[in-house]
Amino acid sequence: IRQVIDNDIVARLAELALMSYLKMISEMKKSEVISAYSRHEGLLARLGKNYRVRMGFGLHMGWAIEGAIGSMYKIDASYLSPNVNISSRLEAATKQFGVPILVSGEIVDTMTPTFREECRHIDCVTVKGSKRPMHLWTVDLNADALRSSTGKVKADTKEKQLAASDPDHYKAYMAHKKLKESKRKAMRKRGFWNPDNDIAGMFQTDVDLRSMRAYIPKGFVGRFNEAFSCYEKGSWIEARDMLDKLKDELPGPAEDGPSLVLLNHMRDFNYQAPPDWEGYRILTDK
């Protein structure tokens, strides 16, 4: 079995995987097609006026078995392993933490220090099916800072008009468009694998990422790290005092989800760490 042992390749794989999730979040928010669901009268009547299309993401790494599962009536290609289950549990836990993405410590440990600085260490837990403590990280984002764009919808309308008026021209146009897009993607992919291409630099150069992260107060992550360090060490009174302030630091009506999760857990023990406290807890919600 051929194994990848180049740490630089592993780091780039991890960073590109996380960055792809972040770009998916921004593209979803900007999509006029998806945005239209938030204005659909039927959905709003059933799910409430504040309904929005949102997705949570869980990112972990490890071995998995790829194969076809099912019966003679239906077959699906799938991946099976405890690591896949952990990714699923991280995705589900994004609702508990109020964040769009949760990343395991195994992933973050492979990243470059520059990229790791853009992430926030928010908890250490054991998940169902595993007794090994796992560090949880996230990337703070406010997707609501982006606006949907109607540009693609207008382009699609023009293409439909062309298809109706001149089918042959439309087929040639679409073939050329797909070829051009394929070449553009291949060139961009090669660029990402260029050792001189700093993936972490996209946090400063990508307009969408900068817009989604502009709301973070200066020094917020550093102050949270101090509070989390107290939480891990068992100094829960100190952690409580700091997290009580931090949960209201982010602008907007919502409080900081990771701060609330830690506060709620400590409150269950009257802000006194248990005698057998080792710096991690059981993630009770899947």
Radius of gyration: 22 Å
Distance N to C terminus: 33 Å
SS-derived structural category? alpha/beta
Give me the side-by-side strand order of the main sheet: 1-4-6-5-7
Overall morphology: globular
**Biggest pleated sheet:** 5 strands, mixed
Fraction of residues in β-strands: 5-15%
Listing every helix as H and every strand as E from the N terminus to the C terminus, the arrangement reads HHHEEEHEHHEEHHHHHHHE
Question: What does this protein look like?
Answer:
This protein has helices at residues 7-30, 32-35, 41-47, 82-97, 105-110, 113-116, 151-165, 167-192, 202-205, 207-213, 220-233, 236-246, 257-267; strands spanning 57-59, 65-70, 75-80, 101-104, 120-126, 134-138, 281-282. By secondary structure, the protein is an alpha/beta fold. Strands 1-4-6-5-7 form a 5-stranded mixed beta sheet. Helix 7 runs antiparallel to helix 8, helix 11 runs antiparallel to helix 12 (236-246) and helix 12 runs antiparallel to helix 13 (257-267). The radius of gyration is 22 Å and the shape is globular. The model has no long low-confidence stretch (mean pLDDT 87).
